[in-house]
Design a protein that fits this description.
This protein has 187 residues and is mostly helical. 78% of the residues lie in helices and 0% in strands. The mean pLDDT is 83.
């Protein structure tokens, strides 16, 4: 019973947070606003989090973990080789949280959080690289380019400028471009 109540409280906090952050910057959101939108009392919120920023960090890390779980099986070369499949898996995951992502996609505050998510995903991809690859600035830039690009496609998707078919086509083109000139042979 406690697990279900905990999950329900967490879902209410997340929904309230995403609603509020889609309307204004985090620094302008008060704990009172958040717990009122979440339809809970102050003590319930504080039993879970110290403040808005503590929740924002938990949300950020949870989002990173969601995407990293998809990317975890791949080093960079494998990511490129399996890119269309990875894109499909990310699309499926995003559809599970479609309303939340759509609600916040155009928020400048969420854009800042997305940059942090992208950076953390790049760090995690680089952790799976060899020491030689991590020392190679071209490799690091390529990883950054691809990770930022993948997330950027979805940001654009939520502005309704892209279709899923376009995203799939782009992933095939990226994969084909790397196949023509494998990473180790880049000049």
């Amino acid at each position: 019973m406690a697990d279900r109540r905990y999950r329900k409280t967490e879902a209410a906090i997340e929904a309230a947070f995403l609603k509020l952050v889609s309307e204004k910057p985090i620094r302008q959101i008060t704990v009172k606003e958040l717990y009122e939108v979440a339809d809970m009392n102050k003590s319930t919120f504080y039993a879970h989090y110290q403040d808005i920023y503590a929740y924002a960090e938990v949300w950020l890390l949870g989002t990173v973990a969601t995407f990293d779980q998809i990317l975890a099986d791949y080093n960079f070369e494998q990511l490129i080789f399996h890119l269309p499949f990875v894109i499909r898996r990310i699309t499926e995951k995003i559809h599970q949280f479609s309303e939340q992502y759509r609600m916040t996609a155009k928020s400048p505050e969420v854009s800042t959080l997305l940059v942090q998510i992208k950076k953390k995903l790049v760090e995690r991809m680089l952790q799976r690289a060899t020491a030689g690859e991590r020392a190679d600035m071209s490799f690091r830039c390529s990883v950054t380019f691809v990770i930022f690009g993948i997330i950027g496609l979805y940001e654009t998707y939520y502005y309704s400028e892209l279709t899923e078919e376009t995203i799939a086509n782009v992933s095939h083109r990226i994969q084909a471009a790397y196949a023509l000139q494998p990473f180790g042979k880049l000049s």
